[in-house]
Design goal:
Blueprint lengths: L5 H15 L2 H13 L5 H22 L6 H15 L3 H27 L6 H10 L3 H15 L2 H13 L5 H14 L2 H6 L5 H21 L3 H9 L5 H20 L3 H11 L23 H32 L2 H28 L6 H37 L6 H27 L2 H27 L6 H25 L2 H7 L12 E2 L8 E2 L4
Helix pairs in contact: 1-3, 2-3, 2-11, 3-11, 3-13, 3-14, 4-5, 5-8, 7-9, 8-9, 8-13, 9-11, 9-13, 11-13, 11-14, 12-13, 15-16, 15-17, 15-18, 16-17, 17-20, 18-19, 18-20, 19-20, 19-21
Length: 524
């Protein structure tokens, strides 16, 4: 909802980047979201326009010599984290520590580059760039890419301008080059991503490139206009940086749609490969962020659940119609389920290496348990049900219409409850968990009633009926096993609500058997 229009999106980008103090971090997060389909390209580009303005606000703040703020933030953050008892407080404390570390790193960069301004070689190199605007742009862009921070380069240029090492004209060129080079780290970082993830970085690059091409011929006038606000060299450099990004944001905010369309033409979506077992959402780049990584694992688990549901659907065709093609499809689907299960387990194991909150640890355990149950369902369908379907076809075992209807109805009910289980897994809905447990009892009762009714009509004199009975009972048993694994997702939800009994056994009672103290259990 925060990016449902371009103005809100730009505001979100500005706020997030002002906190992260890095537009590169923002574009990488957006690229990851876009690659997983969580945000469209156009609103992501609007967020980036705001993010580019947000990073200039950090430069504005740092131009007022707030280096003293870094140790203050670090002390406050560490003290708050050590004394916090609530999860939210600890997260806020970590954010404060992060801000302090970023401010400290920028201060160290400025301190490390300060001696360079006094070197004769640097002065000669900078003087050579005075008459070479294109070379100056490229040098600043290269330096920004090496530093992986346009903010650090702008602050360095500000320091050199304040010390008279560079003229205002060259400082302005270097600022433009820093803005141009600031897009390179994100482009390079997303080279291995899909086209959806690349579009955000390339769209942002198009904004910056267009802005530089427009401003470059008018740079002298732009510097004069910004100097009207504050002619002091250091302030002029920072104000020019802000004015450039603000102008780009205003100019392109209404063109995010066309630019998004252009990036989609330049980077078209690749046809989806027919590989159901390939993970779609397990983004390794966010494994150090447990909340995002767990959300990815949840989505991949739902993908795994969809494959298992497809297996159940094909199992109906194999059992009811003797469809051999369905048997082959189930074998392939089971391989996909096994691969996904392995990938999710490995991904979640990496998440567990991070410092997790108690709720995150519980969720991680639930993901591991549910994916294991889904994998067991796949094995039962592929190994047990398909063996029975093949046996029925090979030996021409005929089930009565009533028996076949019982199996099909029970399997159809399991399919419905699998969909309910996926919803309970995602939402933790207590009412859904109760319905699952009620359905488990009903399926058990239905299986028991069907088996008893069938055995009552069994004829020992008819070998064909004995073979059919064995097949029928085995089918019922395996479908019931599948449902037990399906309903298992309800246990953590019911346990958290205090609605799960510790044992199904009643307490034993003592019986007066000649006073010998024998103990007999109450009937269950």
């Amino acid at each position: 909802r925060s990016v449902d229009n371009r103005f809100k999106a730009a505001g979100v980008g500005l706020a997030v980047t002002a906190l992260l103090q890095s537009s590169t971090a923002t574009v990488l997060i957006l690229s990851s979201f876009a690659g997983r389909g969580l945000i469209a390209t156009a609103p992501a580009l609007a967020v980036m326009l705001g993010a580019d303005v947000g990073t200039t606000l950090v430069a504005q703040a740092l131009s007022f010599k707030v280096g003293w703020l870094a140790p203050v933030l670090l002390v406050i953050g560490v003290a708050a984290h050590l004394s916090a008892r609530r999860t939210l407080t600890r997260q806020v404390a970590r954010a404060i520590i992060g801000l302090g570390l970023i401010l400290l790193s920028l201060k160290l960069i400025l301190a490390a580059t300060a001696p360079l301004t006094d070197t004769h070689l640097l002065r000669e190199a900078l003087e050579a760039l005075e008459g070479e605007p294109v070379l100056a742009l490229l040098m600043a862009a290269l330096l920004t890419w090496l530093a992986h921070s346009s903010l650090a380069v702008v602050l360095m240029v500000m320091s050199m301008a304040a010390g008279g090492v560079v003229s205002l004209g060259l400082a302005a060129l270097l600022v433009l080059g820093a803005n141009l080079g600031g897009v390179l780290p994100a482009i390079i970082a997303t080279l291995a991503s899909g086209p959806e993830g690349k579009r955000v970085a390339w769209g942002n690059a198009l904004f910056k490139l267009a802005g530089v091409l427009v401003v470059l011929p008018l740079l002298h006038h732009a510097v004069a206009a910004v100097a009207l606000l504050d002619a002091e060299p250091a302030r002029l450099v920072v104000n020019l940086h802000t004015a450039f990004n603000l102008s780009v944001a205003v100019a392109f905010l209404f063109l995010t749609g066309p630019v998004a369309g252009l990036t989609e033409k330049l980077l078209p979506t690749r046809p989806a490969a027919d590989d159901g077992g390939a993970p779609r959402y397990l983004d390794a780049d966010v494994q150090s962020m447990p909340a995002l990584a767990l959300a990815n694992a949840e989505r991949e688990t739902l993908h795994m659940g969809d494959l298992v549901e497809s297996m159940l659907d094909r199992a109906l065709a194999a059992i009811r119609d003797g469809d051999r093609e369905a048997e082959r499809e189930i074998a392939a689907l089971d391989d996909d389920v096994d691969r996904l299960h392995e990938q999710i387990q490995m991904y979640v194991t990496e998440i567990s290496r991070e410092d997790l909150e108690p709720e995150e640890s519980r969720r991680l355990t639930q993901i591991l348990a549910f994916t294991t149950n889904l994998e067991h369902i796949g094995d039962i369908v592929d190994v047990n049900l398909m063996e029975l379907a093949s046996k029925r076809r090979r030996h021409a075992i005929r089930l009565s219409d009533g028996d076949l209807d019982d199996v099909v109805a029970l399997l159809g009910r399991v399919q419905e409850n699998l969909r309910l289980a996926l919803g309970v897994f995602l939402s933790g809905d207590l009412e859904g968990a109760r319905r699952l447990m009620k359905a488990k009892r009903q399926v058990s009762e239905q299986e028991r009633a069907s088996a008893e009714g069938h055995l009552n009509h069994l004829s020992a004199d008819n070998p064909e009926s004995l073979a059919a009975a064995g097949l029928y009972l085995d089918l019922l048993r395996d479908v019931k096993r599948i449902h037990s694994h399906t309903a298992a997702v309800a246990y953590p939800v019911l346990d958290a609500a205090g609605e799960l009994r510790k044992t199904r056994l009643r307490k034993p009672k003592r019986t007066a058997d000649h006073g010998n103290g024998d103990v007999a259990a109450e009937p269950v």
